[in-house]
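So, can you check what follows?
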Amino acid sequence: MMSSQTWLPFFIFLILSNISSTFVTAQRYFCLGGNYTSNGTYNNNLNTIFSSLSSNMSYQGFHNASLGQIPDRVNVIALCRGDTQPDQCRSCIQDATHELVKLCPNQRQAILWQEFCTLRYSNNSSIFGDLADFTAPFLLNMYNATSPQQFNEGLRTLLDQLRAQAASGGSLMKVAAGNQTGPDFQTIYGLLQCSPDISQDNCSRCLISAAQRIPGCCADSIGARILQPSCTLRYETYPFYNLTRIREALATPFGSRPGIGPAPLPSGSSPPAARKHRLRLILLTGFGAVLIVITSIIILVMVIKRRKNIKNAYNHKNMEIFLKNHEEGHLGWEKLFEIAVGIARGLEYLHRGCNMRILHLDIKPHNILLDKNFHPKIADFGLAKLCPDTASIMSMTRARGTVGYIAPEVFCRNFGEVSHKSDVYSYGMMVLEIVGERRHIDTELGDSTNETYFPHWVYKHIEVNADEEDRDGVIEEDKKRKLTIVGLWCIQTDPKDRPSMRRVVEMLEGKLESLQIPPKPYLCSSTRLEVDVSTYESSI
């Protein structure tokens, strides 16, 4: 029989892989502008203050400091998550200091959110005690609640309770964690935290602002992390925080730094203290490992059950299934049109809903999940990139995406610069695939669909106004033609000729008579395109 020490890593690995794999991750740093010269005064001040920052962290996991004179004065705020152990906190801050200067070289202002800590520095002293007013990233669990209305009600109740508790914290720590019973035997766990140097009112305002972002970014999701410069908000359907550590830190006076780990029993200890110490040693040795294994098994069963419920809710269906397999069901043009508009709205939010644009860079039918009501949700952000809202283009070291949906400028810079218009192109190709059902249509052009550039066939089809009934046998020509025209506009070779996603939504919701047929798309066949992409990737 395997020992508890052998089983333990296996169960922990399974649990972490089940939990973490469901999250949509995003870039979690901002370079906020202002330049300094290498080996200059500001650079020296920054290096000096960073060198001792981790060792100066309080037991509550907070430290702010300033060094130098204006205009080369460096102001730093370092904050660890409220349930982080001191050693883990110091390690996180130390890693953050090294990483942030690499991510934002020669920048006078920057911020980085790590898993267990936040680091921010600026040449502006107003970062101390003031509420930062810019919106930061979020991390989203891709699965939705099976009973969204009841889940959101429970979440709202929990966040209101925790916000009041966190805001009322003192100048050492403003954090609160707790749970609330949700629907379908779920428990919702939450942790809210503010930078302790801001006031109670500002803390409350910051957490309210974070909660107000949930409907826009994370509606009905069973987990999310809202990251802001002065506060953070996180909720899950599993216990992710150490409540004992939070209570311990809140009860420890400023300046106290208790020892870490099981210390030797002092001589002359009283019998109750000795018994307490022996119990602690037992829990930290073999018996404690057995308890951890048992707990891990229970959590694993809960995770599997939750994932089964999620599968039942989504049935793992995506747009690609409906395009490939007729047995999955027939979607009428009314429903297809609603799905296309829903996807467009989702992309519009990614591009314009936050201060930082989120470029998905892999829009395709497989990455569009459909719930039981056929409401679309954009998934798989593995290739996503963040781009400042003020920047119109971004740099990339290699092509990314799926052949057939990649914008021309992504694999060859001669076509233009990579930007949010690259997502527009992928959306357009997907819409045309929805309209034409490429895999099931005989083009009657003398060549197979694999040898004919698909958008060219669509363009010729709309030019001659070929009447074609949809798979339900009902002609809804207006919606079909509107989707076709919008799709052709989206795949224009020059990114400047493509509409923004906001304009796409307006075109889809507007009148058909106001839409003009765009110029014929210029590109070679899909086979040639695939060769070009492969050649480009092998050359970098």
